[in-house]
Amino acid sequence: MKHIKISDIEDMSKIYRLNLINSVTGYKSAHLIGSQTSKGNTNLAIFSSVVHLGSNPALIGFIIRPTTVPRHTYSNIKATGTFTLNAISKKQIADAHHTSAKYPENISEFDKTNLEIEKKNDWNAPYVKKAPIQMGCRYQNEYHINENDTIMIVASIEHLYISESLLLEDGWVQLDKGDIITINGLDGYAAPQLLERFPYARPKA
Ligand SMILES: Cc1cc2nc3c(=O)[nH]c(=O)nc-3n(C[C@H](O)[C@H](O)[C@H](O)COP(=O)(O)O)c2cc1C
Predict the structure, then answer these.
(1) Which residues in 29-63 are b (16+ Cβ under 10 Å) and which e?
(2) Ligand 1 atom at minimum distance from 109 CA
(3) CA distance linking residue 165 with residue 167, whole number of Å
(4) What's the per-residue H, E or C state across 118-139?
(5) CA–CA gap between residue 128 and residue 88 (Å, rounded)
(6) What is the pLDDT of residue 119?
(7) Ligand 1 contact, 47 CB (< 6 A)
């Protein structure tokens, strides 16, 4: 096996290191975060850092890169307190990836892709039409990560919409039934397939 040491990582070119370190920790969740300015200009951006924080209360977290350049998702969430999380399905990957392009604040990624706005529940942020899972989230807190100047946002899930065919009787959501994709690194998109579901594990006698 190839052995890479911390000194090798430090000496790598920026792109090689970025690809390597973004891939090695495994497949990541894929979401489009919808938000809007206080004036109502919509914004959409892809994020691979959304994680489950807890189910009671229902909380999620995600990481915002250093705010040394404009981060519209962050400033919109600070302005409105709300955003949406939208799962990405196979057919949407090219457009979803394109939302990472740096457009000025007055240009909406919804106008530059085939992704469409869906407004519901008077939520102060746009959902992505046809996303198999949509969540209306409310900002709760943020934590500055000193080591790399990133910010972890903590938010509650206040509205949850799930395509009926994915939602099983016990509340479990079968993601592959919605062709929901996952992210490999920073620019690779993969489609996982469920292998098996196990009962709650108990110690062996
Ligand atoms: C696959 C992928 C995953 C990304 N994940 C994140 C992330 O977790 N956090 C982040 O701050 N930016 C992430 N980005 C970058 C944002 O999508 C990009 O900076 C985007 O322009 C942000 O838009 P905004 O300024 O409208 O918020 C990711 C980009 C790609 C292609």
Answers:
(1) bbbbbbbbeeeeebbbbbbbbbeebeeeeebbbbb
(2) 26
(3) 6
(4) ECCCCCCCCEECCCCEEEEEEE
(5) 9
(6) 97
(7) yes
Note whether 32 and 86 are within 8 A (CB): yes
Give the Cα separation of 83 and 62 in Å (integer). 12
Q: Which is the closest atom of ligand 1 to the Cα of 187?
A: 1
Mutate to test the pocket of ligand 1, among 33, 68, 100, 151 (most ligand atoms within 8 A of CB): 100
Dist. CA 54 → ligand 1 center (Å): 23
**Which pair of tokens denotes residue 145?**
């990560």
pLDDT tier at 53, thresholds 50, 70, 90: very high
pLDDT digits 0-9 by tens, 90-125: 999 999 999 999 999 999 999 999 999 999 989 999
Sheet with 42-47: list strands edge to edge.
Answer: 42-47, 31-36, 82-87, 133-145, 150-162, 58-64, 51-55
Angle at 63 between CA 49 and CA 116, to 5 degrees: 65
Domains with residue ranges and CATH for the chain: 27-183 (2.30.110.10)
Query: 102 CB less than 6 Å from ligand 1?
Result: yes
Closest by CA to 102, choosing from 179, 21, 17, 43, is 43
